[in-house]
Amino acid sequence: MALKTKRLFSLMLILVFGMSLMAGCGKSNSSANSKEQGSSSNPPAESSAEKVKLEFWTIALQPKFNDYFNNLIAQYQQQNPNVTVEWKDLPYDSISQKLLTSIASGNSPDVVNLNTEFASQMGSKGALADFNEYLTPEEKASYFDGIFNSTVLDGKAYALPWYTGTQVLYMNTKIVKEAGLDPASPPKTRSEMIEWGKQIKEKTGKAGYAQQFAYNLLPIEGIPILSDDKKSAAFNTAETVEMINNLKQQIADGVLIKDDAKFDKQIQYYSSEQVAFELSSPAFINFLKTSAPDVYKNTIAVSLPTGKANIRLSNSMNLVVPQKSKHVKEAVQFAALITNADNQTSFSKIANTLPSTKKSIEDPFFSQSDNTLESQAKIASAQSLDKAVDYLVGVPNSSDIGKAIGKGLQEILLNGADTQKTLDAVEKEVNDILNKQ
Q: What pairing do the DSSP bridges indicate for beta strands 317-320 and 299-303?
């Protein structure tokens, strides 16, 4: 999403949710779906003379997935004869603005597809229903803990996780073997990966890997970016200095390319065999096949090594129910149906995504390999979900904060700026950003 759109979203959050959002929201403590998550069927809602119309919004899923969602909606409506569902699909760049406008005008949709960042921001403003009030502990436990908890704030669950994705480690087996390393026993931690990189540099002259110097390097090492109350910077610590010194040493040792390498540059480094590793999502494969088919043939995919935090960052889509929905109970029930294990498994198979439900990855689809790089990446990604966390800064101006931290890291690692002076300056900049919210 463009920075201009994010800023507009942040401004509208402040304007819209300064008003009371708590009126007119009938709630029930009963479960939205009494059948345990993981079933593709859903019990009928309580009989009622009231005719209920749910408005369901998704992001950029039409027309490719029309059959899937139309069948799912028909199934839900058959089981709930008093409910009809109207499905609207919106562009990524417009959904947040349209959602805020609709809520402010009193015409809120009922179930909305949002990413974790915006779901959490809206939840923090009291704009979303708390799923804890409607779902059983068993239903909530059906999702991977780290992904589900990514949108839990102050004990309130503001979203149901839907489809997700994680990075994997791609290795050029030719380079790895030339260095005397065994690709069948890949590194499990970042420390081990760095040791591999040193040996690769010594034996072959190649570097280990390239990456962007971005804010997400901090949570991987267990370093918080903001304080718990999101009101001040928390990253100016000895742990951050240690992390930066580690990166400096990797650059000096030839393990890490001295470049703030965005995705297209990473593809170039790996395709030209200047590096042995690539840390990326399964989407990397298509670019590699096109740019370097011979390198593609020598590449394998394994689970991403973890840092000190022992997590892997995911990138999830969620379903939320706005607090101003006129039919919160039915909306929660419909969201639970879409995100249950059977339906997430089915969607993952046609969309080539990962599910956020534990039972889904028991399906052979996520474990059986045909020895292609694509299936290796799928399996490695699925095996990473137990450590997946959808990390976010969690404030409206998160993009500005991310830019400030990334720029500071680049100044230190690329231009030789003093580490502590730069961290002090970035800390002040981040606090200024927070104070302007």
A: unpaired
